[in-house]
Write a structure and sequence with these properties.
The structure holds two protein chains of two kinds. Chain A is mainly beta. Chain A contains three helices and 29 strands. The longest helix of chain B has 18 residues. The chains are: A mainly beta, B mainly alpha. At the A-B interface, loops of A face helix 3, helix 5, helix 6, helix 7 and helix 9 of B.
């Protein structure tokens, strides 16, 4: 496997076809390695390696995952003035100062819980005497991205475990450490952080991403599981899932809809992220063999056919990182939004011209498939740089919509009509 | 003995520094270990010169929050405000970049290190001249012992990155390869 003389163009094509030989195609040094040096392709890249599929060229070298600032922006430094919503809607800051604010959940008393990924904290936004306060309710956690609430109990998903705090609203001033209910989960960093939610069947849905950009894996990965609320009875609910960081149930059909992020490094324009629908347990959504319903993976897809997998009900744009999504069932927004889906697109990194970094509204046709995708909240992207990145969306009881922003550590509230600022 | 004294010296100085006026004065205890002119003379202690400010901010934040565990730095950072972290990060980025070692390096090891740096695409995120960018650190002419230590800690997951990228990158890299990479990057010209 000596590729020293391989023409560069061919080397690049090879990199696309075979991630495991990528190393062999990597640009050769000007000074040849001394005799006795290890051959360049001695070690395959492990699952999860961020180098998988990465071509070695100048444009690709400029692209790397974008890390947000570790410190939450001060309220007066938030990009509120840049944010745009359709006519008749208003956007305001709901709460700030929550470094790396990610997934959202709310209690029946209106407390909003906010997970994080790059810090160790779960926050609560509490309403007290008409004023909103931010509290840290759990810390020392490892990538506690996921939060869910049911019957007084807060559920928290870290990288490889799910835990709970009972009667959270009663103990919010000095909550006990979360109690682990389920930890039979892989520990991979790649796509290991979790969004969680509780379904109409009263089960907790817990995704396990594929442990890398584009990899074969064991049967503990690439899926959405569901467990009972005490952690018992785990079962695999959907497979062929690359990395879902947002899902919700259609209020009419009760079908689970989930966003799924397509692979990196295939091209600037494909594959697009997916919006999927599960109509029966056990469905296979194709990754890593088939992406966006019609692209057979150029490396792993040999011998496979996209027709063997459930296609997405809609496409969400290339590398846009469609994450949090919720159906809108509130009464505040105009009728056209009823049962539409709001989707937070975190925004691309694996693309020269960034795309996403917004909230879009997805409307479905009578078959439950995507009819339209329109911008709803924009302005987070300026001069190909992020000034904010939406992660999750959540409807408040008054029908307004919260949007979390992990770049600034803030949550915004979008309302409709004559602006009535939420109590502060 | 020498190693034990250093943290003590640092603790003694930080109290004084808190009341000091200029960032140069406040940073004096940092530079006592990390090197006055951006190049560290202290074993296993990184050179900070021309380090990317967003990367420094992330590290100082992680030290303060104990997301990155190293007692001396956890102690140094524990009382710093968000604004302090930003001020220190911006200041550190203005220090002159670390000087390359006087010797050009053993050609055979340099060749092996260079091949590995390309094989593992260090030259992508860290840039072809290893100057880094934003949250990706400058590594060019970093101390060899510190590079060795850091790459090993990422590999065995005893150092958690801000995200998991370096843990994943380091999985297939052998101990011998880490030594060659550290040698090459430290001697890079």
């Amino acid at each position: 496997m000596n590729n020293l003389m391989t023409p560069r163009g061919l080397a690049l094509a090879g990199a696309f076809f075979s991630a495991f030989t990528l190393a062999a195609h990597a640009q050769q040094p000007a000074t040849p390695p001394a005799a006795g040096a290890a051959p360049a392709a001695a070690q395959p890249l492990p699952p999860g390696s961020p180098l998988i599929g990465r071509p070695d060229n100048e444009a690709a070298a400029k692209l790397a995952p974008v890390a947000p600032p570790p410190i939450a922006a001060a309220p007066d430094k938030l990009p509120l003035a840049r944010l745009k919503v359709p006519a008749g809607f208003n956007v305001e800051v709901y709460a700030a100062g929550m470094a790396n604010a990610r997934s959202l959940a709310q209690s029946d008393k209106g407390t909003v819980f906010v997970g994080s990924r790059l810090v160790d904290k779960v926050y609560a936004i509490v309403n007290r005497d008409g004023k909103r306060q931010v509290k840290v309710i759990a810390s020392g956690l490892y990538r506690p991205n996921g939060v869910a609430f049911k019957d007084g109990t807060l559920y928290i998903a870290e990288l490889s475990k799910v835990s709970k705090i009972e009667k959270i609203d009663d103990v919010i001033d000095s909550p006990p450490k979360p109690t682990v209910i389920y930890d039979n989960l892989p520990k991979d960093e790649a796509h290991g952080w979790k969004f969680i939610a509780i379904g109409p069947d009263n089960k907790l849905y817990v995704p396990v991403g594929q442990p890398g950009n584009n990899v074969l894996h064991d049967d503990a990965h690439g899926q959405i599981r569901r467990i009972n609320l005490d952690g018992s009875g785990p079962e695999v609910y959907a497979v062929g899932v690359r990395n879902t960081v947002g899902f919700d149930w259609n209020p009419e059909t009760k079908h689970l809809y989930f966003t799924d992020n397509g692979r990196d490094w295939l091209s600037e324009t494909v594959p697009e992220d997916e919006l999927n629908r599960v109509t029966k347990a056990g469905e296979d959504f194709g990754a890593p063999f088939c992406y966006q319903g019609n692209i057979i993976d150029q490396e792993l897809g040999w011998g496979k056919s996209c027709s063997d997998y459930t296609p997405p009900v809609g496409l969400m744009g290339p590398h846009t990182a469609a994450l949090g999504m919720r159906f809108y069932t509130g009464g505040m927004f105009p009728k056209a939004y009823k049962n539409a889906i709001f989707v937070a697109r975190h925004g691309s990194w694996n693309k020269s011209k960034k795309e996403g970094g917004d909230v879009v509204v997805v409307k479905l046709d009578k078959d439950g498939k995507v009819k339209s995708v329109e911008p709803f909240l924009t302005g987070f992207l300026a001069d190909n740089k992020y000034v904010g990145r939406p992660v999750d969306v959540m409807q408040l009881k008054d029908g307004s919509l919260l949007v979390s922003d992990d770049w600034n550590g803030a949550v915004y509230r979008i309302s409709y009509g004559k602006q009535k600022v939420a109590g502060r | 003995m020498y190693k034990k004294l250093l943290p003590a010296l640092a603790f003694a100085s930080i109290t004084f520094a808190a009341g000091a006026e200029t960032i140069q004065e406040r940073a004096a205890p940092c530079l006592a270990c990390h090197g006055e002119r951006g190049t560290s003379e202290t074993e296993n202690t990184p050179s900070l010169g021309a380090q990317q400010a967003p990367y420094v901010l992330i590290q100082l934040f992680m030290f303060r929050e104990k997301l990155r565990v190293f007692d001396t730095m956890n102690e140094m950072a524990k009382d710093l405000s968000d604004d302090d972290l930003r001020t220190f990060s911006d200041f550190i980025a203005t220090l002159p970049k670390p000087a390359p070692p006087a010797d050009a390096g053993d050609p055979a090891r340099m060749g092996r290190g260079q091949a590995l740096a390309h094989q593992y695409l260090c030259n992508n995120c860290h840039k072809p001249d290893f100057s880094g960018g934003d949250n990706v650190p400058r590594i060019a002419n970093q101390r060899e012992d510190y590079l060795n230590k850091t790459l090993s800690e990422y590999k065995d997951n005893s150092r958690h990155g801000y995200d998991g990228t370096m843990a994943d990158v380091m999985q297939p890299v052998t101990k011998e390869q880490i030594a060659d990479l550290a040698y090459y990057i430290a001697h890079y010209r």
